[in-house]
Amino acid sequence: MKRYDLVIVGAGPSGLSAAIEAAGYGMKTVVYDENSRPGGQLFKQIHKFFGSKEHHAKIRGFRIGEELLQEASAAGVEVQLESTVTGIYEDKEVTVQRKGHIEHVKGDTIIVATGASENMVPFGGWDLPGVIGAGAAQTMMNLHGVKPGEKVLMLGSGNVGLVVSFQLMQAGCEVVALVDAAPAIGGYGVHAAKLARCGVPFYMSHTITKAEGTDHVTGVVISQVNEKFQKIPGTEKHFDADTICVAVGLSPMSQLLKMSGCTMSDDPKRGGQVPETDEYGETSVSGVYAAGDVSGIEEASSAMIEGRISGTRAAYEMGFVSEEDEIKELTKLKNDLLSLRRGMFAPGNKGKKIEKTEEGINVSQNLLTKGYLSEAEIFRYPGICRKKGLHPVIECSQNIPCNPCQDACKFSCINVGKDITSLPVVNPLAKCSGCGMCVASCSGQAIFLVDEDYDETGASVTLPYEFFPLPRVGDQGYARNRAGEIVCKAEVISVKSSPAYDRTNLLTIRVPKDMAMKARFYADRAETKAETAGGAV
Questions:
Q1: Contact (Cβ atoms closer than 8 angstroms) between residue 515 and residue 488
Q2: How far apart are CA 287 and CA 259, in angstroms?
Q3: In the chain, at which end, N or C, are there fewer CB atoms within 10 A of the end residue's CB?
Q4: Cβ–Cβ < 8 Å for 520, 166
């Protein structure tokens, strides 16, 4: 029987982070994962992360995965793939199914980082080919280069539903609608705004009545629901679609922890049945830890820090690190984790109706129900200003833990301050260089450069653009507003791509002067098919 100082189950962001930390202190560490490649969900995530430098902010998920694998290899971590841990028994004996047989290993400590699985919701026709989870769609697109469908309806408005919807569009799919039974959008407003300005309609307080088709999905019928989530007769709407993507939450994969005798609790705010742990992730079974989504659903940034906390604590308990160094490291990690657990989307705020920002500004109800800031609301926020010459406009209206825009600007045009969840403020007295680094670094694509005095009759708007093919200088198209409506003609006057922008292209369009604070997306044609969908049944 092989023996290790530390056995980790799961090679996702939390498991790899724990392994790197523990191995760095000299622990003999092995990581088991049932998949054919390590990294968990990170390698499906092509979007940029929120947070700060310490949290891998503005770095795309798959890049973070590559960094973790390199660090794990350098630290001497043993990673065993296509290896399913089938049980954790007394004295920390672990059984692993590999290559058609069962192996027994012993760990002095164990960290379970098995992550979470997608939830599903039943409706008429939900078993038809074409009904898939959002994670499955990401796997098809971002790992295998396969389009999940041509016309997709997304069910679920949390961050997963919003992010995957945008990625579906990047892959060339048409997102005909985003539907959610909840009365308000559950994910970040900046993610919703990206979809809205592309013309994707939101149907809040709606759910799927049935999927149409015999041997595959050919259409979808949705219905409005009341405050008790009961369908309202006569409110049915039909959409042509060949794919229904479901993003209705995640459930911790905590079966191994329960099997090992850990005390469990049912906590809806954390995703379901989770282990009871202390501040280091240690369960009621001494030497067995839980890290990442298996102990409560959060963002990957939090999962990585939780893994590092558990790895450090395990190293201390086994005598691989001094108490002084452990206290120093854990204090820093806990502060980092605390900074991510603040703001409107903090775990403690789940289910609460937030009516004002930390600055006392009324929360945009239009954003919560339709996915975009209305013109009447936009000037409430400190990231919006009007001035002569080129300047940034930051349409970030929620207290999200994120500050790359502040670090990106070397001319003090943007300030977030010490509190990472504060709304960014544009300094009207600072002179913008036009470098565009703030636009490219914004993980929510919520920053634009505006020059209302570009020429005698026109204004210029520089916006983030992550679609192919790229427009060319001189192309004549149309500008969409925040609601995705065509508002004017637009001419492409600049297209910039740079390694420093990390695949976020900067597209500058010329529009009439009175459209400078309205034009927020470029389209090469005047309408999308999504705008003609959603007819009554």
A1: yes
A2: 15
A3: N
A4: no
Mean confidence (pLDDT) of the chain: 95
CA distance 58 to 112: 28
In angstroms, the Cα distances linking 387 to 180, 394, 397, 432, 459 are 39, 14, 20, 11, 12
CA separation for the pair 60, 172 (Å, rounded) = 20
Q: What is the pLDDT of residue 316?
A: 98
Per-residue pLDDT tens digits for 340-395:
999 999 988 988 999 999 999 999 999 999 999 999 999 999 999 999 999 999 99
CA angle 22, 26, 27 (to 5 degrees): 55
Identify whether the C-beta of residue 505 lies closer than 8 Å to the C-beta of residue 497: yes
CA distances from 86 to 32, 111, 347 (A): 11, 15, 31
User: Residue 244's beta-bridge partner residues?
Assistant: 131, 153
Query: How buried is residue 12: exposed, middle or buried, by Cβ count under 10 Å (0-12/13-18/19+)?
Result: buried
Whether the Cβ atoms of residue 273 and residue 293 lie closer than 8 Å to each other:
no
The model's pTM is 0.95
Length of the chain: 537
Token readout for 400 is 């999200």
Q: Name all domains of the chain by residue range, CATH numbers in brackets.
A: 2-117+251-340 (3.50.50.60), 120-248 (3.50.50.60), 372-532 (no CATH)
8 Å CB contact between 40 and 140: no
| 242-298 confidence digits (pLDDT tens) | 999 999 999 999 999 999 999 999 999 899 999 999 999 999 999 999 999 999 999
